[in-house]
Amino acid sequence: MVTVDAKGRVVLPQEVRERLGLAPGTEVTVREQDGVAVVEPEDDPEEILDRMESLLEGAPDRDPTPYEDLDPRARDQVDTIREAAADDDETNGDGAVDRDEAGSDEAGGDEADGSEVDGDDTDGDATETGGPGTDE
Predict the structure, then answer these.
(1) Which residue, 52, 49, 53, 11, is CA-closest to 28?
(2) CA 133: distance to chain centroid?
(3) Are 136 and 129 in contact (CB under 8 A)?
(4) What single string gives the DSSP state of each residue in 67-78?
(5) Distance of alpha carbon 130 from its chain centroid, rounded?
């Protein structure tokens, strides 16, 4: 018989763990069903992808709904995604802000040589204010 300890933990018997393929670190879902605690291992990500692909294979091909025909909530989501994509384009997708030909960024503060203006070395490259090779 298995017991629940003071912290609510239960040790599953080894034979059960082996039958279910539960190795240390395996994530499980614990839920109540008809007054019984049910412990189920989380699905393998590869299995989830395989199921999704099989569902998509049976899905009918259709054209996307025109923006004008979307309900207000869907339009709001589309607008949010487009804004995030535009922001990502401005940062090259890596967080680095695009610079114009004058060497300034859209935030309007960094020097053209890439030095830190405020002295905050958040990227960990040990660049001091004024940049390498300066006396600042």
Answers:
(1) 11
(2) 39
(3) yes
(4) GGGS-HHHHHHH
(5) 35
Residue for token digits 């384009």? 89
Cα(94)–Cα(89) distance, rounded to whole angstroms? Answer: 9
How far apart (Å, rounded) are the C-alpha atoms in residues 101 and 108?
Answer: 13
Tokens of residue 37, six digits: 């605690």
pLDDT digits (tens, 9 = 90+) for 23-65: 888 888 899 999 999 988 887 778 888 888 888 887 888 888 9
The pLDDT assigned to 115 comes to 46
**Using alpha carbons only, how large is the chain's radius of gyration in Å?**
27
Q: Dig out the tokens for 86 from the structure.
A: 């535009």
- For the residues 64-86, what does the mean pLDDT come to? 92
How far apart CA 126 and CA 119 sit, in angstroms, is 10
Domain ranges of the chain: 68-92
pLDDT, one tens digit per residue, over 104-114 is 444 444 444 44
Distances (CA, A) of 130 to 59, 92, 102, 111, 136: 58, 25, 18, 8, 5
